[in-house]
């Protein structure tokens, strides 16, 4: 495989960026962390036909690979700065790689993230991205920091990506866009760093991801099903509320943030997220008794269908 040719092609497209002392081309990149900041690091692998459909446009695959990694930084309240890209490809397909870089570097540029290194090998199609960023020493939106009595919030709308996956070719433009090109809530995460207690990004579905926060924080929660934010497109595609809830709770790939904050911060949270153009919806509150209780608008509780859980909640 013309490995060095491909690396040269990647390198040509990476402009020098802030805090990068040495980028692609040596054995290591050299990066300089601003004073008073701690490093935040996250890594995600995307395997063809497990995490993405290899038939999708290469640019969409690249965009999503960047998005899911930036989403992890967002969930800690970190400011993204650098990434690496480890690529395994069955053949040296320059056109495919060029398309991949179009999408990948588009989102990186939007967040001023520099691609500073990686690896290029022959093998089954797979991308492994490491995203790095920083946040002030001693600060972070950790999963174990939620407190009993906190409000429970989510950004944006839920269930769109899952609906797009279920509808396949029948999904409209908006829903499809939410699946193929999710928006990492980087600005929202940073704005929440001084307001929220705990946060997590929704990659596997609210039901499961929220469970991680509750267990780590030794708390439980009451979630108001009637408050779950749904897009107009989701409501039109799934007019029946229980079908919608299954997508919103058990469907993955939303990459919205779920977070908790003290009730005294309600106005501040709304204003901070409004300032970065992100919808914030209060969907419940934390209690001492463990577990997640899904509350019906008319009273009483509800559980997702076991089938829906299996189908939508499958670990990826
Ligand atoms: P080494 O064998 O020392 O690891 P490589 O030949 O794998 O070096 O890589 C040469 C340089 O190109 C390194 O700086 C590496 O980080 C970079 N690089 C390799 N593949 C990629 C890639 N897919 N994306 C970005 N940088 C890459
Ligand atoms: Mg190498």
TrEMBL record:
Substrate binds at residues 51, 253, 309. Keywords: ATP-binding, Kinase, Magnesium, Metal-binding, Nucleotide-binding, Thiamine biosynthesis, Transferase. It catalyses: thiamine phosphate + ATP = thiamine diphosphate + ADP. Pathway: Cofactor biosynthesis; thiamine diphosphate biosynthesis; thiamine diphosphate from thiamine phosphate: step 1/1. Mg(2+) 2 binds at residues 44, 72. Residues 25-134 form the PurM-like N-terminal domain. InterPro entries: PurM-like_C_dom, PurM-like_C_sf, PurM-like_N, PurM-like_N_sf, ThiL-like. Mg(2+) 5 binds at residue 204. Residues 147-295 form the PurM-like C-terminal domain. Mg(2+) 4 binds at residues 27, 42, 72. Mg(2+) 3 binds at residues 27, 72, 201. SUPFAM superfamilies: PurM C-terminal domain-like, PurM N-terminal domain-like. It holds the Pfam family AIRS_C. ATP binds at residues 118-119, 143, 203. The keyword Transferase applies. Mg(2+) 1 binds at residues 44, 119. GO terms for molecular function: thiamine-phosphate kinase activity. Its EC number is 2.7.4.16. It is an enzyme of class 2 (transferase). Reaction mechanism of ThiL seems to utilize a direct, inline transfer of the gamma-phosphate of ATP to TMP rather than a phosphorylated enzyme intermediate. Catalyzes the ATP-dependent phosphorylation of thiamine-monophosphate (TMP) to form thiamine-pyrophosphate (TPP), the active form of vitamin B1. Belongs to the thiamine-monophosphate kinase family. This is Thiamine-monophosphate kinase. It comes from Pseudomarimonas salicorniae. The gene is thiL.
């Amino acid at each position: 495989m013309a490995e060095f040719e491909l690396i040269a092609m990647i390198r040509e497209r990476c402009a020098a960026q802030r805090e990068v002392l040495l980028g692609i081309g040596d054995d290591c990149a050299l990066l300089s962390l601003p004073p008073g900041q701690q490093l935040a690091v996250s890594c995600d692998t995307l395997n063809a036909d497990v995490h993405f459909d290899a038939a999708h446009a290469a640019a969409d695959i690249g965009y999503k690979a960047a998005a899911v990694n930036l989403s992890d930084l967002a969930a800690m309240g970190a400011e993204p700065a650098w990434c690496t890209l480890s690529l395994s490809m069955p053949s040296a397909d320059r056109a495919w790689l060029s398309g991949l870089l179009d999408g990948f570097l588009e989102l990186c540029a939007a967040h001023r993230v520099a691609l500073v290194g990686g690896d290029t090998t022959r093998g089954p199609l797979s991308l492994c991205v490491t995203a790095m960023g920083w946040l002030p020493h001693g600060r972070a939106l950790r999963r174990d920091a939620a407190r009993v009595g906190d409000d429970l919030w989510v950004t944006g709308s839920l269930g769109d990506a899952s609906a797009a996956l279920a509808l396949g070719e029948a999904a409209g433009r908006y829903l499809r866009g939410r699946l193929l090109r999710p928006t990492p809530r980087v600005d929202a995460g940073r704005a929440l760093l001084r307001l929220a207690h705990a946060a997590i990004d929704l990659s596997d579905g609210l039901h499961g991801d929220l469970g991680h926060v509750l267990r780590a924080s030794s708390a439980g929660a009451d979630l108001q099903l009637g408050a779950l934010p749904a897009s107009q497109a989701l409501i039109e595609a799934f007019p029946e509320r229980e079908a919608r809830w299954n997508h919103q709770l058990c469907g993955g790939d939303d990459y919205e943030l779920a977070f908790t904050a003290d009730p005294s911060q309600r106005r501040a949270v709304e204003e901070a997220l409004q300032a970065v153009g992100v919808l914030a919806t209060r969907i419940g509150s934390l209690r001492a008794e463990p577990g997640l209780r899904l509350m019906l608008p008319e009273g009483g509780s509800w559980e997702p269908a076991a089938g829906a859980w299996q189908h939508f909640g499958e670990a990826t």
